[in-house]
Amino acid sequence: MALKMRHNRSPNPPQPCMLTECMSIIAGAWAPNVIWSLRAGPRRFSELRSDIPPISAKVLSTRLSELEKRGILLRHVRRTSPPSTEYELTPLGEELIPALDGIVQVGHRLKQLQSADTDLAGTST
Amino acid sequence: MALKMRHNRSPNPPQPCMLTECMSIIAGAWAPNVIWSLRAGPRRFSELRSDIPPISAKVLSTRLSELEKRGILLRHVRRTSPPSTEYELTPLGEELIPALDGIVQVGHRLKQLQSADTDLAGTST
DNA sequence: CGGTATCCAAATAGATACTG
DNA sequence: CAGTATCTATTTGGATACCG
């Protein structure tokens, strides 16, 4: 019988493919920034470009299409002159904000740790 | 004071570079899977390879080095014969788990939504 | 303004072979 | 077992030009 389960070493990773697939939502260097820029409300294409300085129109356009297709954001075109387009997070998209925030928190502490290390290295001789 | 605050259109994106930098912790296709596989306790190199099926030794090795350097995990070498190495999340690394989990939750609902769409499309004629 | 098309550069990943 | 080295393939991003 397969009852000789080890207390650790559990060969029980819950679908790594699922994780990979979910992570692909925010894949690419810029998707998280797009979501982040939209967290406070709708933004237009050129506003997003200013929010996220070195992003090219092509990449921004590509990311926006993908995120729209996945249901993370909505695109709203106004046929004014000049034309105007607004992008806005869906409720589901908004749920990604806390997750991104969590990662930023960890990143922040990581930097503090590294500063502390440097600090100690400098004072220990 | 700067009271003429616009209710939206706020030109106030909190350091997109910071977000980008933090996100780079989990950059690459496999880093999240590595962290995920370690969430239940220490794992050895070959165990991680089995956990995350199609990962090559080179990529796993690269990711592990990066994550170790950043302080997300610890490497513990046992000079036994044959040699054995264990990888383990640091406390900071463990803090990434809830964030990853949040993303997975959203991904999961996204899939449900898409199934619902398909379902409706099939029944509406 | 809000994109798309094309071409090119850089980063990431995979396959294979080899080492301690 | 636990990697590293090398080479190549794929993906991603950037620059520029151009269109509605």
Automatic annotation (TrEMBL), chains A, B:
Keywords: DNA-binding, Transcription, Transcription regulation. InterPro entries: HTH_HxlR, WH-like_DNA-bd_sf, WH_DNA-bd_sf. Gene3D superfamilies: Winged helix-like DNA-binding domain superfamily/Winged helix DNA-binding domain. Residues 17-115 form the HTH hxlR-type domain. This is Winged helix-turn-helix transcriptional regulator.
